[in-house]
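Chain X:
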Amino acid sequence: MASNQLTIFICSLLLLPLVFPSTAAHDETAPTEPMKKKVDVVVEGMVYCQSCKYSGSWSLTGAKPIPSAKVSVVCKNSNKQVSFYKTYETDAYGYFYAQLDGFKMSNNVLDHPLHGCHVKLVSSPLTNCSLLSNVNYGLYAAPLRFKNKVLRGTHYEAVIYTAGPLAFRPAQCTPESHV
């Protein structure tokens, strides 16, 4: 009988750490390093084909999204040197989500994406709508905006900046006749 009780006692000691993990032995001298949160910088926006009716203006009334259009994100540091450049392609709905992998800031204020990063039109896959327009400064570099859009996870955060909608324009627009 005493042997049975001893076996049960030993088994309960062995199972105790499994049932109550906080009772398991651990090294209190080992520093526990908190997991670092990964923070990504993202730029998003839309690319359209501007309607002939509004060509030459900034109006996007009647504009259609362009799938597979290309834009570039250019970031310059406080010394006006290019510190990041990459092209991105729009999805089937004309939307781009540009995750700036490798983007670094040496000066948190002057190299900030709102100050140093811009979006430019690169190319359109539509032969009938491939001329660059300056809607939201797409020709010369559209500035970014921050609209308090942040994606948060346990160990991840994406700070999302927005470029205003950009547009290509048709090469051949028939003039409207006013009879």
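Chain Y:
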Amino acid sequence: MLISRVYLTLCCAVVAAAVGAYLHVLWNIGGFLTSGGCMGTMIWLLSTPPSQEQKRVSLLLASALFQGASIGPLIDLAIEVDPSLILTAFVATSLAFACFSGAALVARRREYLYLGGLVSSGLSILLMLHFASSIFGGSLALFKFELYFGLLLFVGYIVVDTQEIVERAHYGDLDYVKHALTLFTDLAAIFVRILIILLKNSAERNEKKKKRRN
């Protein structure tokens, strides 16, 4: 079944991303080059014909590895603050993905596809806000809004993308590698935002403890 192959390939991509993050922790390789490598391998994958299956799977794993290395600096920060936050963020991301992707699978066909326009519009708003804050300067309230609104958007994308995969399969689109890449992008975005939220909450708790002691 197509969805089983998509989920299996997605799991392999998650493992590759974990390896990439670990390599950053060891050798500090994450940064602009790995981000560029991630985008480059994604474009290469999407431009490669579906018939070259093995090459496309390798490109997906390479892209996931670069993505993991790019997230590496955030992982480093979490290790310094509280290493358990990484596991908490991973479990929360996995649960969110399982719940919303599962809900999209058991729902009626095309039931949530209408959300595609809403989340796309929301993403455009988020990008404009980010662009404006980078030029005119941001605030803590705006940062929080971008963080939580972005989390909500990518959770919505999980639902939409899962139903779109099923719908495309009905019309003969069995490109499981591309579908796995789509879901992996959603998963990575959710993980990063949850981890940032956990780090922020941890920092606020530590600040409150210091004030009480003083």
